[in-house]
Write a structure and sequence with these properties.
The complex is a heterodimer of chains A (about 300) and B (about 350).
Chain A lengths: L2 H6 L9 E6 L3 H12 L3 E7 L6 H8 L4 E2 L2 H8 L4 E4 L3 H11 L5 E4 L7 E2 L2 H4 L8 E3 L3 H16 L4 E9 L5 H5 L1 H16 L4 E8 L8 E7 L5 H15 L6 E9 L2 E8 L11 H18 L13
Parallel strand pairs in A: 1-2, 1-4, 2-3, 4-5, 5-7, 6-7, 8-9
Antiparallel strand pairs in A: 8-10, 10-12, 11-12
Helix pairs in contact in A: 2-3, 2-11, 7-9, 7-10, 7-11
Chain B lengths: L1 E2 L1 E5 H4 L10 H13 L4 E4 L19 H11 L4 E6 L6 H9 L4 E7 L7 H9 L3 E7 L6 H14 L3 E5 L7 H15 L4 E4 L7 H10 L4 E3 L14 H10 L2 E2 L4 H14 L9 H9 L6 H11 L3 H10 L8 H10 L10
Parallel strand pairs in B: 1-10, 2-3, 2-9, 3-4, 4-5, 5-6, 6-7, 7-8, 8-9
Helix pairs in contact in B: 2-3, 2-10, 6-7, 7-8, 8-9, 9-10, 11-13, 12-14, 13-14
């Protein structure tokens, strides 16, 4: 299966654009709006927050997007859209989904709510044809799932541990309140896509100055692992991820005494994020890819949202 | 006489000194001895708390469930405490700990990150458990910042709040200023001080904390803890009593518990060894020690200089990669440009 080819070919030059709304105006919502703005296949029609003073709303206005501080209610009133991105919190998403579901919109959830179908583009493809709620797992999930999936497919992995470090100033309130959900959703994804049931997930929020670039360390127990073979598998997985998240790199990869340690780093490639915010960049890049491929899908019935 | 509550994390923070390998027999034996001395709170767990057994920091010898139930059974008078770091443990771990009969929960966060504890403090409050919030690496924040973070933690539901001198960097006036600012900010909420002994000041700092209004003071038998160790419990208690703070602890039984701890928990009691003194002076996480010594040795650089440079860069736990940069720079192999 040539997923990489599929992913890169999926950005059409000219097709009918998909109409898009974004809920949530934190750092992740702002970067999403920026990435949507750059995407020829997506037309951002509404950005909804809850605080009229938020910098995220002002940023969206500066790009010419319609904005509202009336949150989900405004999105429902202006519906239908082809795609609604939810960049709020896991608890908010669980409230939003029953309201959005009847509209037939594709909902792309960036919170660790575990509601929708989990997507890590290079592993799952972008989404099943009939998926209406696509879940992007978590930043640590996006960083680790391609590698743990590839490792477990090739080696008899018995235990997986995923330790991610996020800079404090790009961990907003929703992230801080959702640490349990992060751990649960990431663990569920790692187990689902590796088949390894014994997993441990850890998230560090680091206030270091200068801020630490987003890192994910994977520790795996692999009997008799061959270092060169592991490195080849990991490099191949990373190359695929770079097709949509170019700042994804393997910093270190060692195998000794049944213990494999892989250090991944994601540098943000974004108009609005600092380079260390790779956690937001990778999940948003995956989310926009899902929307772009949905927009390019033959036979898609377009929906119009509020005109801007 | 004023009262202080002694909180004893020997069986949790001490785990760092033995790679989290304390067995259930050792846990039970020390818990019984501390209980006999009427130590008010006995804390147990992996060194990084609930759910933290991992390849990243070390696999515990026993599960959280086994550790908690073993110590619970050993305590007749003392209350049972445990610890958690949000992002390492989860509410599921807290729920299970509650079911094991834990009385006092400590939620730890970096000094400037109280909001990371918001969810779990709220969870514990709603569950009716006693929850404390401790601000770690507190030398990296000013008294005013610590006071603000402490007040936030109280707003989230913390029933006691305080600071850990994780790097063992403070001198008594530093503690007086910080505890004073926190006491002023949180009013009647009990304030916690948890010392480390890198500069030999842990007991003196704890007395300064009590005099500045702290009402919960941490100490470990024989100072059992990573590097230079923690505040030495069996010295702390009589010194507090002589300073006018009642602890309710039986001194002879406490000395017996400390003797047992030295015999059964540790290869040797911790002392402020040279590298611990340097990391304390530099205000750097002592867990960097092995990596600093290893990399500096390989590059022919003085590891003491590496520690002081890491301190200037405000390196914190998790930034082990910075050690590589500093060693390379000090060895003259091309300075990096992204220094703070």
């Amino acid at each position: 299966m040539s997923l990489t080819a599929g992913l890169t070919d999926a950005r059409p030059d000219t097709v009918e654009t998909a109409t898009v709304a974004v809920i949530g105006t934190g750092a992740i919502g702002r970067d999403l709006v920026s990435k949507i703005d750059r995407s020829p296949g997506l037309d951002c029609r509404l950005v909804a927050g809850r605080n009229p003073e938020s910098a995220g709303l002002r940023y969206a206005e500066s790009l010419g997007c319609a904005t509202t501080a009336a949150g989900i209610d405004a999105v429902l009133a202006a519906s239908p859209f082809d795609v609604v991105f939810d960049a709020t919190s896991a608890a908010s998403h669980r409230d939003h989904w029953p309201l959005l579901e009847p509209l037939g919109t594709l909902v792309i959830d960036l919170t660790p709510s575990k509601v929708g179908q989990m997507v890590a583009p290079t592993v799952t493809g972008v989404a099943a044809e009939d998926a209406r709620n696509v879940n992007l797992i978590s930043c640590g999930g996006q960083a680790s799932v391609p590698v743990v999936h590839a490792l477990a497919a090739r080696f008899p992995v018995t235990y997986l541990e995923v330790v991610s470090t996020v800079a404090s100033d790009v961990a907003g309130r929703a992230t801080r309140l959702n640490l349990d959900e992060y751990v649960t959703a990431t663990g569920h994804a790692v187990t689902t896509f590796s088949g390894v049931s014994d997993v441990k997930i850890i998230l560090n929020i680091s206030p270091a100055v200068p801020p630490a670039t987003f890192r994910t360390v994977i520790h795996a127990r692999v009997p008799d692992a061959d270092a060169a073979a592991v490195r080849a598998v990991v490099d191949r997985a990373a190359e695929q991820v770079r097709s949509f998240a170019p700042g994804y790199e393997v910093v270190a990869c060692t195998a000794a005494d049944d213990l494999v340690t892989i250090v991944l780093k994601v540098t943000a490639c974004s108009d609005v994020l600092p380079p260390y915010a790779g956690n937001l960049d990778i999940i948003n890049a995956a989310a926009v890819l899902v929307a772009e491929q949905y927009a390019a899908r033959p036979g898609r019935v377009s929906r119009t949202g509020v005109s801007s | 006489m004023k009262q202080v509550v002694i909180h004893d994390p020997t069986l949790r923070d001490g785990q760092h000194a033995v790679h989290h390998r304390l067995g259930l027999t050792e846990l039970r034996r020390y818990a019984e001895a501390a209980d006999a001395a009427r130590v008010p709170v006995v804390e147990v767990g992996h060194g990084n708390g609930l759910g933290a057994s991992s390849l990243q920091v070390g696999l515990a010898a026993a599960t959280d469930d086994a550790m908690l139930s073993t110590v619970r059974e050993a305590l007749r008078h003392s209350r049972l405490g445990t610890f958690m770091l949000p992002g390492w443990g989860t509410s599921d771990d807290l729920r299970r700990a509650i079911s094991h009969g834990v009385d006092v929960f400590r939620v730890g966060v970096h000094a400037t990150e109280a909001s990371l504890a918001e969810h779990h403090l709220g969870f514990l409050r709603d569950a009716g458990a006693e929850a404390h919030c401790v601000l770690m690496m507190s030398h990296m924040a000013s008294p005013g910042e610590l006071a603000e973070q402490a007040a936030r933690a109280v707003g989230y539901g913390a029933q006691a709040v305080g600071i850990m001198d994780s790097a063992g960097h403070f001198l008594p006036p530093d503690v007086t200023a910080r505890i004073g600012a926190i006491v002023e900010a949180v009013g009647t909420v009990p304030v916690i001080f948890h010392g480390h002994n890198n500069l030999g000041m842990a007991v003196a700092n704890s007395v300064a904390a009590a005099e500045a209004g702290a009402r919960i003071i941490d100490g470990c038998a024989r100072g059992f803890g990573a590097g230079a160790g923690n505040t030495q419990l069996e010295v702390l208690v009589p010194v507090l009593e002589r300073s006018g703070f009642a602890t309710g602890i039986d001194l002879y039984a406490l000395l017996d518990a400390a003797d047992l701890a030295e015999r059964e928990l540790m290869p040797a009691p911790p002392v402020p060894a040279s590298m611990s003194i340097v990391s304390g002076l530099a205000g750097v996480f002592s867990g960097f020690k092995h990596r600093v010594v290893e990399l500096a040795g390989a590059a022919g650089v003085d590891p003491r200089e590496v520690f002081f440079e890491l301190g200037r860069r405000q390196a914190i736990a998790g930034q082990e990669d910075l050690i590589v940069d500093v060693v390379a720079e000090l060895s003259g192999r091309g300075p990096k440009t992204d220094a703070a």
